[in-house]
Amino acid sequence: MSDSIRNRKIVASTLNAASRFGNEIAVVTGLAKSTPIDPLKVVECESHFIVAHGDNFADAFDGRLEYDHPLFVLFYNTKYDHLWPHRGEHHPKVHFTIAHELGHYFLERHRRYLLKARQPHNSEAEFVADNFAEREADCFAAGLLMPETLLRPRVNKRPPSIPAIRNATGDYHVSFTSMLVRWIQLCDFPCAMACVQGGNIKWGFISEGFAQKRIFALKRATPLGSSDALEFYRQESALKAYREGSGWGITSQWFDSDHKGIEVNESYLVVPSTQQMLILLTASEDDLPEASDDD
Predict the structure, then answer these.
(1) Residue 52 near residue 77, CB atoms below 8 Å
(2) pLDDT tens across 13-48, in order?
(3) Tens-place pLDDT, residues 152-183
(4) What CA–CA distance (Å, rounded) separates 143 from 220?
(5) Which fold, 188-295?
(6) Contacts of 234 (CB under 8 A, 6+ apart)
(7) Taking the mean position of all CA atoms in its chain, how far away is CA 261?
(8) With a threshold of 0.90, does the pTM exceed it?
């Protein structure tokens, strides 16, 4: 295995560990029993150590966590409540931001940094930041808001699809982006998701179903290689309008893998608010060879 693949597997393992930690917090606080999960109830459970304050902070930040002895103070931006329609008190973006900041609070390395630096930490939440600590906090939030015990049975009823993932977002009060990420994390079928910006694969996740077949990692920071995906992207490369589409590619265009030419189904969706093109990648289990005993 190359050093590049090994490093990407370590990154994926670390992000999955952050999701599992978020899941554990949902369980131990008693919130992992029904949906949707309100992250402010986690703040209530930790009220001796952290307080939360929401306000319209315009474009200053999505969320902010600082340590003001003896308490952590969690600020969350409510501007999205006024920008976009939603059910309930807060928009899903606001709920995700609160859960993201709780990631900085609960994840040990993040917490130590805040205690030592005594500097506030501003966040850009929900899988838009390149900073690894932000990606970790995003994964924690996904695990907290979409616990495995509730979502996994739904995920693994049948192979993943855009409609099935979209239908689940309302029950969990989350965005399509965060539901897509969590779906892949919990899926036993061979599948993956990729985020494209600027014509390049920016980030993504693969399912255990792909990993077991020696499809190791997405080719991050590389140009789109699938002609169908590239054609869809070029139709409106600014990604400012909602669109959906589909196409086909092969594994070598998306993954570092021992299997180069296996056909992959591509489902495309543009998220205008973040100017991201999200791609659900699936393959037939019949097309994937069995892993050898040495794998």
Answers:
(1) no
(2) 899 999 999 999 999 999 999 999 999 999 999 999
(3) 999 999 999 999 999 999 999 999 999 999 99
(4) 23
(5) Beta-Lactamase (3.30.450)
(6) none
(7) 27
(8) yes
In the chain, where are the structural domains located? 3-145, 188-295
Question: How would DSSP label each residue in the chain?
Answer: --HHHHHHHHHHHHHHHHHHHHHHHHHHTT-TTSSS--THHHHHHTTTTEEEEEE--TTS-SEEEEEETTEEEEEEE-HHHHHS--SSSS-HHHHHHHHHHHHHHHSHHHHHHHHHH---EEE--SS----HHHHHHHHHHHHHHS-HHHHHHHHTTS---HHHHHHHHHHHT--HHHHHHHHHHH--SSEEEEEEETTEEEEEEE-HHHHTTTEEEE-TTEE---HHHHHHHHTTTT--S--EEEEEEEGGGTEEES--S-EEEEEEEEETTTTEEEEEEE--GGGSPPPPTT-
Write down the residue that tokens 């932000």 correspond to. 134
Q: Are 63 and 76 in contact (CB under 8 A)?
A: yes
Cβ atoms of 122 and 104 closer than 8 Å: no
Write down the residue that tokens 């920016």 correspond to. Answer: 202
Structure tokens at 28: 């131990």
Backbone angles phi, psi at 140, to 5 degrees: -60, -45
